[in-house]
Amino acid sequence: MVFITAEIGINHNGDIKIAKELIKFAKMYGCDAVKFQKRTVEEAYSKEILDSFRESPWGNTTRDEKLHLEFGKNEYDEIDKFCSEQKIEWFASSWDVASQDFLKQYDLKHNKIASAMLTNLELLENVAQEKKSTFISTGMSTMDEIKNAVNIFKKYNCPFELLHTNSSYPMNIEEANLNCICTLEDEFSCNVGYSGHESGASLICVAAVLLGATSIERHVTLDRTMYGSDHAASLEPAGLQRLVRDIRLLDVIKGDGKKRIWPSELKKLNRLRRN
Fold first, then answer.
1. CATH code at 141?
2. What is the DSSP string of 161-183?
3. What is the pLDDT of residues 47-81, one digit of tens each?
4. Does the pTM of the predicted model rise above 0.85?
5. Structural domains counted in the chain
6. Which of its termini does the chain have fewer beta carbons within 10 Å around, N or C?
């Protein structure tokens, strides 16, 4: 069965109530997990970027926005407890070693390497040494860069799954290049999923599953018009419901590939065949 992750990321806009609403929708509609993003803001971004002007509901600098969007221990303790109550997994992509060390206090089944962190060798080494199942996004990356990351996880015998993705928000559908799912599978002999940043319907994710994707990750939001960089490339609750429904139907539609005469065909066979 395809593993479906509802990527909340920073679409909670710094509000734990929004995070819990999104967790409830993910559970209600049949997702396997929800995912967040964890950063140590002063380490993940340069001082120049943090000091740059950026008008937001929370201030006038990039630092103001990033700090507001970052959950701390109190919020993650609530998330951990709430997901346990809802019976849904959660995990997070860390953007620096300190954030990964922070996440180790929770009993999580998965880790995640964001595309932006694929070349952060120190972080990759830290994550791989946990030997915990890890999703590795491959947006804006070359095959050589992906190979370097894969080699680190193989060195520590850490289970991993690559995620084909395009790091544009939202992605142009002409750049989906879903055949890369097969390319990555052939090149690295591993499971390959798809992390979608397109706007709107579930067609691309469904096509990814038909091409062999073993997991799907999609950003989710309560309202695509909310302030924030990721909302426009996210699914609202109704869209998430349709996505999960369509993917789960594929498990039935695809079948086992064995050609057979179905019992439902026998009556017509006996009526139409003379030989």
1. 3.20.20.70
2. EEEEE---SSPPGGG--TTHHHH
3. 999 999 999 999 999 999 999 999 999 999 999 99
4. yes
5. 1
6. C
